[in-house]
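Can anyone check this?
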Amino acid sequence: MRRANGYRVYGLRDAIVLARIRRLTELGLSLDEVGDVLADDQGRELHEILLALDEDLAVQEQRIRERRGRLAVLIESAERGELEADDAVSEDMRRFLSKRDSAIRVLPESEMAERERELLALMDSTGGGDRPLAAMLPVTPEDAVRGHELHLRLDELADAAVDDPRVEALAAAIVEGVPAEVVAALEAEGLRDLDMGDSFSAALPGSVGPAQAEVLRQVIRMLAARSATS
């Protein structure tokens, strides 16, 4: 009902409806969901929506617990002065990197190993597959040592020419150690369609040497070929 001046007069029923709307939106329901609830005299719609909302909140609650667990680890590392830029990765990736670092601690440092660490952190942050990348990577001490030896061989090519005879053999050795699951995951990300022309080449100078870049190109070609035949 409206008064002569155009203002609407709200009655008790309107106040009750507004109170219901406020309570339902505070629970997390959207206005569309609230409309469905208020239009259903039997309350069945409300029950279904509340169950769905509860499931959604349970998922969010679990994610918050997991994030707080990761934050606790990072905070402890920061308090010890051991926190590094790429430590804020998933728990699976953190465990993988920790195992790998422990296995190669007594070996010479490798610049290419650090580059790989940065790449793994990037792939970990952008991945969204059914299985985390870290869960598909080899984690035995022997695997870690073998991988680090390959990094050291890549370091040796820092100033080498593109046609260095060590390039092809090193690329083949790297591909040999890539698990089939990782190849499948890379294929899902478009490995076979990766541009091997100027765009890829332009991204490499300044970060790796010519021979190192050629090794990486050959690795990608070999992985794409291996994926195509699997």
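Reply from J.R.: I decoded it. Residues 192-202 have pLDDT under 50 and may be disordered.
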